[in-house]
Amino acid sequence: MYFYLTWIISILLDILTKYLANNYLSQEIPIISDFFALKLMHNSWIAFSIPVYWAVLKVMTIVLIAIIFIYYIRNEKNEKSRLTDCAFWFILGWAIGNAIERILYSEVTDFIKIKYFAIFNFGDIFINVWVIILLTLYINKTWKNIA
């Protein structure tokens, strides 16, 4: 049950933060000088402003990732911990939040700017944080099996 709750929370947080950015972020707001700021941008590329020019490829990539996650969650259940389950559902939720925008508007709302890097949103951050957590768990499990 909590899996669905984490999934719904991540989608709602994604929608809420993008709503706030779209409605209240009319100009750039510096947070740490010109290094870190809030700046509204509508991005037709994929995560962290990586360019992908074919809309069909974008949607296919999103759908493929969702299918892989759902398959893994449903078929590998006995092998995982609650943290792993939580990570997968959060990743799926944020990915769906971005996919909804991409399908409806052919772009995603980004609003976190780091100089010399990219403009991105919370979904991009949390997807990457949870992927790092999953990789860490996988590496730890692999090392325990080797030892």
From TrEMBL:
It is found in: Cell membrane. Its EC number is 3.4.23.36. One of its GO terms (molecular function) is aspartic-type endopeptidase activity. The active site is at D110, D124. The chain crosses the membrane at residues 52-74, 86-105, 117-139. One of its GO terms (biological process) is proteolysis. Keywords: Aspartyl protease, Cell membrane, Hydrolase, Membrane, Protease, Transmembrane, Transmembrane helix. The keyword Transcription regulation does not apply. GO terms for cellular component: plasma membrane. InterPro entries: Peptidase_A8 (IPR001872). It is a multi-pass membrane protein. Pathway: Protein modification; lipoprotein biosynthesis (signal peptide cleavage). It holds the Pfam family Peptidase_A8. It catalyses: Release of signal peptides from bacterial membrane prolipoproteins. Hydrolyzes -Xaa-Yaa-Zaa-|-(S,diacylglyceryl)Cys-, in which Xaa is hydrophobic (preferably Leu), and Yaa (Ala or Ser) and Zaa (Gly or Ala) have small, neutral side chains. This protein specifically catalyzes the removal of signal peptides from prolipoproteins. Belongs to the peptidase A8 family. This is Lipoprotein signal peptidase. It comes from uncultured bacterium (gcode 4).
